[in-house]
From TrEMBL:
Keywords: Metal-binding. InterPro entries: Asp_de-COase-like_dom_sf, MopB_CT_Acetylene-hydratase, MoPterin_dinucl-bd_dom, Mopterin_OxRdtase, Prok_Mopterin_Oxidored. This is Dehydrogenase. Residues 88-621 form the Molybdopterin oxidoreductase domain. It comes from the Bacteria. PANTHER family: TRIMETHYLAMINE-N-OXIDE REDUCTASE. Residues 754-835 form the Molybdopterin dinucleotide-binding domain. The keyword Translocase does not apply. Pfam families: Molybdopterin, Molydop_binding. The keyword DNA-binding does not apply. CDD domains: MopB_CT_Acetylene-hydratase.
Amino acid sequence: MAEKKGEEYSGKNVKRLDQYPNNYIDEDGTRWRKGRCFFCSVHCLLYGGVDKNGKLTEIIPLDEQSKHCYRMGEHGEKFIKFHYHPARINRPLKRIGERGEDKWEEISYDQALDEISTKLKELRDEYGPETLVIAEGTYRSDHLWARTRFTNLFGNPSNIIDPGTICWCWTYTLNMSMVGWPIECSVPPWGAEAGSSILWGVRPYENGGEFSGIWRTMSAPVKRKENPGNMVVIDPLCTEEAKESSLWLPIIPGTDLALQLTWINYIIENKLYDEEFLKYWSNAVFLIRKDIKKLVRLSEIEEGGLDEDFVVWDAKRDGLLGWCSDENRYYADGEVDAQLSGEFEITFKNGETVTCITAFDELADRMSQYTVEWASGVTGLTETKIVQSVTAYATGGPAYIGWGLGSADQHGPNGANSGIAKTMLRILTGNIDVRGGEYIGFPGIIDADGEKRFPLRDSEFELSEMVTPEARAKFLGNDEYRLMSWKGFEPIDKCFRKMFGVPRPMLHQLLVTPPKAWDAILTGEPYPVKALIAWSSNPLAWAPNTKHVYKALKALDLLVVVDYWKTPTAALADYIMPAADSLERPMATTIEDAYDIVLIGDKIIEPEYERHVDYDFWRGLGLRCGQEEYWPWETYEDAVAHRLARGGVSYEEAMEEGAWVNSNPTPYKHAEVGHNGQIKGFATPSRKAEIFSSIIQDLDYDPIPEYKELPETPVSQPELAKEYPFRLVTGGRWSPMHHSEFRVPGCGTRGVWPNPIVQLHVSDGRNLGIRDGDWVWIETKRGRIKQVAKLEWGIVRGVVICQPSWWYPEQPAEEPWSLGVFDSNANVLTDDAYETLDPKTGQWVTRGMLCKIYPVTDGTDRADLVESIEPFVNEDPKGFWNNTFNKLNHKA
Ligand SMILES: Nc1nc2c(c(=O)[nH]1)N[C@H]1C(S)=C(S)[C@@H](COP(=O)(O)OP(=O)(O)OC[C@H]3O[C@@H](n4cnc5c(=O)[nH]c(N)nc54)[C@H](O)[C@@H]3O)O[C@H]1N2
Ligand SMILES: Nc1nc2c(c(=O)[nH]1)N[C@H]1C(S)=C(S)[C@@H](COP(=O)(O)OP(=O)(O)OC[C@H]3O[C@@H](n4cnc5c(=O)[nH]c(N)nc54)[C@H](O)[C@@H]3O)O[C@H]1N2
Ligand code: SF4
Ligand SMILES: [Mo]
């Protein structure tokens, strides 16, 4: 099959939104532009109107989902309130009091950049460029590459802390090592055609929205009139998804790995696997030594054999055969019958005879302990449900496991193993790049003639090659959490460049686990960290062990926060820099380089006051730190135009189109012939789907997962469980909240959820004397917080699910109030001790730890300062913002 032509990927295949021309001026003089919303990862297309006086008047949704979105409101009413909200940070604020005293002066943007960069250079001179750490959040803008470009040129080892360690970035990395693509996505493009969709700890109804494409696609199999399929929901809570499912598995939180391993075992024992895929496209046939379980390299077998090549047992030749990874073929002509099972005596080139087995046999052997009966005991699920669920997955037609936090992310030391297990399931069942199954993308950048005809990808702006080996070695955790470090990045980058002709994006892999950064700040080990820039990030809300975060932030020489609001993190800063919102900036992004599309949107309105796009912040620092030659694009628009130019599209054309997509994705791309005449295979070291990952093994980890109890469960800590008998989940998305955002009264988003909610079983509530609606304390070994109890029947008994990320913008920013960030914030309860982290990735546990829960008896202990919810509803009836907020929060 020929390589794809560039034009197949062009935006010209997208339905033109002709009825909404960009830059259209109507009869009232209102100018309309097509932009994109960045309030959540759906990124809806919007049509925004700005009147003759430069005022934003209306936002028309151009997507089905934005029409019903609770953050947007009718005619964009809520976004408009957000845009003009009196509490927005509109000019840089410089601290004039003690840290945390909430005393500020307003300064100009240029003065702030001058002062920040001067301080950064001083610190760099004294402590080295590694003294800077960046904190960021989940995808809030498409300016991430600008951050990386700045830190790389600064000489920093990429010391970034980002929730990606527990949210998807690590699965991106893990899947790069196994199948060469971030296969774990919310929904594959052909998801609606699935025989079975597996919603494993995911809530698309809330995380994408009730009207989102994500929810529509995931639920399509059960809703299909003809030939309906399955929707299996695995969740301790009876969510909307569970109610509509064909099968709900009310699992004990934190035990998912037990179920995943049992599915693998059941599939192998009952021969439900796809033998052809395993034999031809996976490395299940590669031989490993039976004694030390290491993959056999061709270099160990024959003189001149390469380290990167592997061996199989070929039944056609009744002997060993080498696999040429570089060319994705065997070192033989004609038919090959690589054996999936068997034990073979192999003579190595040093004369040693070694017993070898196939990777598949090793997997089968290791999984055989995970019986259905055992899993039932660990997970609390009935044996019937376990068998029904794996049968639906393995035999219900093409199937995919949608990405969800509950299935692996945030499971601490079991996290990476759960991720590996899920992809093993995908490979075993051959659900890789098939219609209705999982999707492998192709950035489409190299044409048959070897030219690139695709807009520049984010990774091409990052300049990872500028980071020296000396700098790389200083990455915090480089030797410990190796998968998420340069040690893991380098082999993956090599495969990615070979397959796609572009660097592997840094921004998902080089993530420092937060306690490493806090300890460097607090102890100076392994070296002093003195400066932290938090942009699109409120680490006091998102990172584990809030008290640890707080101590570290207080100890910094320089803390800069770039945000819309004075968040609890910003309240501790030296400088708060105003960020422009998504209406105030254009967008062109390969979405963190995780997709083979480009999303595009225009700037709808000029930034108000001194708000700047994040690009301006990073470029501004770059120019002041001697990086002039690397920042030729004066504005973000210029950078966007530059990246689009390689795709042959002008800025104006692109904004009209709104996206650049491959409108006709093809399956089985691994079987296509690439631009170099080779069968493509996968972007892994062996070009096979590596069910037994050579990268993971080379990083000195076991590529086969095993089940361990999480650090804090009634099984691992029976004594502690006597005092803290409940299993706590600190997570669960709900609209319209998006992490710690949309709490600010006066945006119209706090009305539905004025207070944080904790769910528990009705019977547990009765036993504990907790009534529905009571304020309750939730306590772990590390601290306690208060939330409002919501009693449920549809929840596993003994499980408590509290909402994360709470703070109270209506409280004073001054200490000790700190905007209420210790009152109801679930991360006061979570742990960041090294022994509780995942050794591969540095993930921590947010789900499945021990807690107790009891009523708040003292009325003055109420977490909320505001007695009535009135100020939280759409309008501002009591002049709340003008009176209360200004008094409390804007003392500048
Ligand atoms: N409204 C809204 N939407 C969002 C976000 C937001 O903050 N608000 N955040 C965005 C981001 S960054 C992310 S990462 C996604 C995340 O979105 P999701 O992956 O959907 O994450 P959650 O809603 O936290 O958890 C999903 C489900 O897992 C269940 N669960 C909890 N613990 C376990 C467990 O141990 N095992 C199993 N099997 N299930 C468990 C919960 O009950 C919940 O129903 O949402 C995105 N969309
Ligand atoms: N216990 C527990 N902890 C969790 C989770 C959980 O379920 N339980 N979920 C985890 C997950 S999945 C995630 S993704 C993280 C979320 O963590 P983050 O993504 O860091 O989310 P926030 O804490 O809301 O901080 C984001 C900040 O960015 C600001 N912001 C928004 N847009 C922009 C922009 O364009 N530019 C700039 N400069 N700033 C902007 C917002 O105002 C907000 O203050 O939390 C993680 N932590
Ligand atoms: S917040 Fe609403 S309008 Fe904005 S991207 Fe998400 S779903 Fe779309
Ligand atoms: Mo996330």
